[in-house]
Amino acid sequence: MQAVGQCSVCASRAAGGLLRNPTDLSLLRTNKNGLRRGAACIRFISSRKPGVQKLGERTDTEHISKAPLSVGRGLYAIPFTQQLENLSHDSLIRRAASVVTDSSSTFLSQTSLALINALTDYSKAVHTRIAVQRRYLASLGKLTPAEKDSFLEVINGQRAEASDRLHECKRIESTWINAVNLCKMAAEAAHTSGAEQASITVRTNIQVAQSQVGEARKLSADAEKKLAETKVEEIQRMAEYAAFLDNNEDHEVHEAYLRED
User: Contact, 158 vs 129, CB < 8 A?
Assistant: First the structure.
């Protein structure tokens, strides 16, 4: 705007000087600088293209478009090309509900991954304990005292490892349940505010998380079932071994009695 005003002033000055006395060469020389400025301004105006804005220039439209966006800067960057009705309170609420569903879905995915890994580690610890315990039962009567102590130490270590893993599963599961409940609340809030797609998405995420965690729970349940079977087998095997030792002791006592006779 300043450039256009300057151009008009320069042109009017130069033209005015010529029209008042076109034959006056001295006046023409005096207005020579004014003519040069006017021609430069005209070339400047003609060289500018519509819609092109140079670096550092600011327009009133840009200033106006940035004003209403400062309120929602923490939520979403709203393009200037959107209609004014998209900046209504309902629109902002829907956007906020979408942000809540996204955040709760992220919380759910992270806790689900942590719980699945914890259940997997627990299942591995239980299977390792079962394998060591069965090897020990199969070796009863064949082990030296040192080997027996070594086996029992390993079994106790695996029992403690499985117990720690189970405690970790319960701790993470509590957080995971909170994440599921949070997602359900976010889905309901999104549905109420009109963000139906966000509500559907978070409900789908809940179903997927529950399915994946359910598979991991099945694996840990199978491991616990095998551990229970191993405990029953251990009781039976230890009873048989104790009976075997009693029979051998009675047999040795009977032979000693006969030798005394």
Answer: yes
Distance CA 121, CA 212 (A): 15
Task: Give the burial class of 37: count Cβ atoms within 10 A of its Cβ; 0-12 exposed, 13-18 middle, 19 or more buried.
Answer: middle
pLDDT at 72 over 60: no
What digits encode the pLDDT tens for the residues 114-126?
999 999 999 999 9
Distance CA 252, CA 214 (A): 57
Residues in the chain: 261
Whether the CB-CB separation of 84 and 65 falls below 8 Å is answered with no
Q: Which has the closest alpha carbon to 16: 36, 2, 35, 3?
A: 35
- Over the stretch 203-245, which tens digit does the pLDDT of each residue have? 999 999 999 999 999 999 999 999 999 889 888 888 887 887 7
The total of other beta-carbon atoms located within 10 Å of residue 71's CB is: 11
In Å, what is the CA distance from 242 to each residue of 141, 153, 156? 10, 21, 21
Predicted TM-score (pTM) of the model is 0.60
- Terminal-to-terminal C-alpha distance of the chain: 134
Q: Are 36 and 50 in contact (CB under 8 A)?
A: no
Largest CA distance in the chain: 165
pLDDT of res. 151: 87
